[in-house]
Design a protein that fits this description.
Layout: E1 6-8, E2 11-12, E3 15-16, E4 20-24, E5 38-44, E6 52-55, E7 66-68, H1 71-74, E8 82-85, E9 91-96, E10 102-106, E11 121-124, E12 128-131, E13 137-145, E14 165-174, E15 188-195, E16 203-208, E17 211-215, E18 222-226, E19 232-240, E20 249-254, E21 257-264, E22 280-288, E23 296-300, E24 303-306, E25 326-328
Antiparallel strand pairs: 1-13, 2-3, 2-12, 4-5, 5-23, 6-11, 7-10, 8-9, 8-11, 9-10, 12-13, 13-22, 14-19, 14-23, 14-24, 15-16, 15-22, 16-17, 17-18, 19-20, 20-21, 24-25
Length: 332
């Protein structure tokens, strides 16, 4: 079976790229007791790189899905390219190129589309860009797992259901030249506990300046210590999964030291009915603002999933009987 249950590989102008790979032995960088024998290598290159510009040659209404271009401009495009209208800000996605002078497009989601005017210019962003299933572009290279059938919304069928105690432990290595930035708008997430239906994840491990922090909608942006480039760090998240702030809790350990004391809080979202928990699953990799102009490379050990702290090497509860560990990730 593959080392992850699902993946979201970035692409370059419609061409799938191999940015997520498994490495073993001498190909695993670094040293020390936290270094694994196998790792998942994740690379994300700049979103913008040698952009091209095409120009509309005819007007189109706000609901039209056909864009008229010169034959020279149409020849520059590929299926699933994104087109950013410089005048309106709308992002379109190419769905096909039926003729030498026309392309079919999807109009922007969740916005009121504007009419297209002859002479409107569209930037085609190059570099690593991911199609998130809608007519908008994202900058991400990540894998995801621990989910039930995505067409099933019964939260009790998911591996990490509400009421469960879960301990997620893994090691991460950021390359010595891993870019960080003081611009607070250049956000970056490298691990997410994501809701099936929610937008932003309830909990996420983020990079803020040169610091790790617990972010997401429930993370309260709690600092977890400085980033150590070129070294392996082992994190353990202990979580009681619940959307009820009086039931859920989270604590965080780093290299065997508790860096965030247990805090009672909601750790999941509710679905739109305000009653049913929104099922969560796990995502790892580089997910960042599209304005980053550098390449990020990170390595992840296999993710250990346990139901108590003892099984991830944190002996807080000496009377706990060790359970059966689950592993997800590279080398499994």
């Amino acid at each position: 079976m593959p080392p992850w249950q699902g993946e979201q590989q970035p692409r370059v102008r419609g061409v799938e790229q191999n940015r997520i790979t498994v490495v073993t032995g001498a190909s695993v960088p670094g040293s020390g007791i936290n270094k694994p024998t196998g790792a998942m290598r994740v690379e994300l290159r700049p979103y913008h790189n040698n952009d091209i510009v095409v120009t509309a040659t005819a007007d189109a209404t706000s609901t039209a899905t056909t864009l008229s271009l010169s034959n020279a401009d149409a020849a520059l495009l590929a299926d699933r390219d994104f087109l950013h209208n410089a005048r309106t800000g709308e992002m379109l996605r190419v769905n096909g190129i039926p003729s030498e002078t026309t392309v079919t497009v999807s109009r922007a989601q969740n916005t009121t589309a504007a009419a297209i005017l002859a002479g409107d210019t569209f930037t085609v962003p190059c570099g690593d860009v991911n199609d998130s299933g809608g007519s908008y572009a994202t900058s991400r290279s990540e894998v995801y797992g621990r989910f039930a059938n995505f067409s099933t919304d019964d939260p009790t069928t998911w591996p990490d259901s509400a009421g469960s105690e879960r301990w997620y432990s893994w090691s991460i290595y950021l390359t010595p030249d891993y870019p960080t930035h003081e611009d607070v708008n250049l956000w970056e997430s490298i691990m997410q506990i994501k809701g099936q239906f929610g937008g932003s994840p309830p909990l996420a491990l983020e990079l803020y300046h040169s610091t790790y922090r617990l972010g997401g909608t429930k993370g309260l942006y709690t600092g977890l210590g400085g980033v150590r480039k070129g070294q392996w760090d082992t994190f353990a998240f202990g979580i009681k999964l619940s959307p009820n702030p009086a039931v859920g809790w989270i604590e965080v350990w780093r290299n065997g030291i508790q860096v965030m004391a247990r805090r009672t809080q909601a750790t999941m979202d509710y679905k739109s009915d305000g009653v049913t928990p929104d099922p969560i699953y796990i995502k790892q990799g580089v997910y960042r603002d599209t304005a980053w102009a550098e390449t990020h490379i990170a390595y992840y050990s296999p993710l250990i999933v346990a139901s108590n702290s003892v099984d991830v090497g944190i002996a807080q509860s000496p009377n706990v009987v060790p359970g059966t560990l689950e592993y997800w990730g590279a080398g499994v």
